[in-house]
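Problem: given the chain below (218 residues), write out its structure.
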Amino acid sequence: MDKPKICASIVNGDLETIERVSPLVDLFEVRIDLIGPDWREVAGQLRKPWVACNRKSDEGGIWEGSEEERIAELLSALELGAAIVDIELSTGNLNDVVTRIKRQAECLISFHELEGTPPFNTMREIAQRQLAAGADIVKVVTTARKFEDNVSTMQLIQEFPGKRVVAFAMGPPGLVSRLLCPLVGGEFVYASVASDGEAAPGQMTAEEMRQIYEMVRR
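Solution.
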């Protein structure tokens, strides 16, 4: 089994903690909306590949500027060396944005449902739309209300063999899907840099996740 890949979400400018966790992770997510104006300084210090993300407010982010400003800030990450850029499926003029991203980086097209977990057929159709839009990586994140939501998100990963998919359910009831995502074929799993800095409900720390995966590999 391949070593599960962990992506640690950076939500502030605590470079000391970021440096400490770096050996445990495979890549970072730079949350532009959460870090604020200093995000470029943070990104410039990273020694691992990083995902640029400037999350829309209706999908769990806190960006307060206009949509045009949000996209412009996100795309500026391309010049700073972002390996992957995360853009929401619901973004207006998506095709143009995806085209611009793919000239310089890989494109992750994301979908977030903050209220629950859609039926499996709905999630499959969302993933198909993401692939059709040019996603190098598909990300479908829901909110767990019951244990079965873990199962359906993991099934989504296996529905697209040969494709790079990240799928899990947020919140404490979705913890199983977070842990198992990379173990059932998911591209990577998200974790927090520190226990007081989760970027989404139910995130475990990168240290906790790596400890668990090392136990599984024994």
